[in-house]
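Summary of Year 1 activities. Much of the first year was spent building the evaluation harness for sequence design. The harness presents a backbone, in tokenized form, and records the residue chosen at every position. We chose the following record to illustrate the format because it has been used consistently in internal testing since the harness was completed.
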């Protein structure tokens, strides 16, 4: 059995690096592979990165995967299967994308009262393991892991992070995250948004924020993109929202089924933060409000010379003007390009959906490119002369 783990494009090249795992009860082990696709040569190579013993398929570890903001490092954590009463050591692997090689690997212990909550990676190639507590008496903390050391940093029992992301401002490294106060009265799980100095172990600012808690049935806040420009931090984030349930059979031949939650993404927001951690403004994006989480995101964004270009699920690319505080107005000037496909009948132009997470800009050819899903097929659309 093979599973996809993650992928990253090598900066400045035409190579795509894909990581997969294989496992079987017969071999009693998991194997992690690296596949390098050379798009210029039309060829690929496969290398084994590591091998891990497992008790059984049902008790195997799982791989968490994250890429640094600058795409120079990819990190995988083999999170071991554990029970409430036993400590484990999870394997952290940091991969150098430019060198196409493992930079370092470490075994990081986790006691029986804690569990791995999430992972993020700094631009300098450090892993930040956010760890939660199985006990009310143990504080939430994160472990900062580098090639030479690992260090626990206590966040305290009052601060509960939600899916944090690492970012760099010059040589300084920070965590940004929605969060909530675990003690005392709180208004939902997404009522605060913080800037935390990783190396100093210091909370810079923790803002009250209303935009996420106001969304009905919100389940999660995902930070999709961060940019540092104009002496500000620009954070693009979207809400993951429960949207009813669907009946799922216990197996293909069963007549019994159970209700499973259905999730979608949207709305999306641009959060503008100053370097002291204070939120300057929040801007709701024009995004896809029916982006089912299994397939789509509610928006895609790319930065072209300081201006942001945005696509939702439809056929319009918008520009967020930097000289207008990145606000979108209902005016012709904000409509960058309306996309029409001459290969489709005109009545079908509104029936396809943009795969917005594949939206990007190609500076060499000065073209936008994004995925399009139509008639159960994925294709790619390029846009030029805008």
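For this record, the design step produced the sequence shown next.
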């Amino acid at each position: 059995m093979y599973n996809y783990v993650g992928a990253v494009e090598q900066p400045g090249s035409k190579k795509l690096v894909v990581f997969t795992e294989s496992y079987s009860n017969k071999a009693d082990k998991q194997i992690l592979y690296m596949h390098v696709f050379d798009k210029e040569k039309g060829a690929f190579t496969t290398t084994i990165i590591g091998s891990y013993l497992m008790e059984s398929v049902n008790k195997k570890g799982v791989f968490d995967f994250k890429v640094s903001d600058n795409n120079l490092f990819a990190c995988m954590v083999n999170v071991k299967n554990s029970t409430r009463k036993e400590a484990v050591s999870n394997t952290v692997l940091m991969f150098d994308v430019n060198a196409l090689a493992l930079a370092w690997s470490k075994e990081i212990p986790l006691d029986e009262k804690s569990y791995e909550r999430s992972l993020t990676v700094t631009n300098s190639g450090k892993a930040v393991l956010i760890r939660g507590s199985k006990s009310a008496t143990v504080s939430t903390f994160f472990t900062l892991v580098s090639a030479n050391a690992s260090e626990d940093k206590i966040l305290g029992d009052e601060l509960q992070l939600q899916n944090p992301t690492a970012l760099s401002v010059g040589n300084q490294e920070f965590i940004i995250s929605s969060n909530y106060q675990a003690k005392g009265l709180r208004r939902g799980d997404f009522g605060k948004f913080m800037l935390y100095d990783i190396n100093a172990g210091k909370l810079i600012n923790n803002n009250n924020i209303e935009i996420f808690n106001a969304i009905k049935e919100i389940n999660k806040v995902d930070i999709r993109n961060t940019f540092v420009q104009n002496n500000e931090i620009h954070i693009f984030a979207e809400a993951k929202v429960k949207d009813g349930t669907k009946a799922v059979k216990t197996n293909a031949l069963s007549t019994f089924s159970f209700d499973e939650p259905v999730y979608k993404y949207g709305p999306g927001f641009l959060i503008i933060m100053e370097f002291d951690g204070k939120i300057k403004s929040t801007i709701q994006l024009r995004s896809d409000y029916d982006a089912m989480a299994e397939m789509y995101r509610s928006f895609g964004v790319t930065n072209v010379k300081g201006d942001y270009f945005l696509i939702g699920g439809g056929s319009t690319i918008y520009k967020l003007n930097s000289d207008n505080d990145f606000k979108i107005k209902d005016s012709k000037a904000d409509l960058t390009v309306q996309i029409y496909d001459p290969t489709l009948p005109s009545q079908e132009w509104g029936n396809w959906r943009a795969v917005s997470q594949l939206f990007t800009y190609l500076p060499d050819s000065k073209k936008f490119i994004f995925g399009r899903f139509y008639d159960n097929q994925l294709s790619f659309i390029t846009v030029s002369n805008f």
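The radius of gyration is 22 Å. Quantitative recovery figures across the full test set are reported in Table 2.
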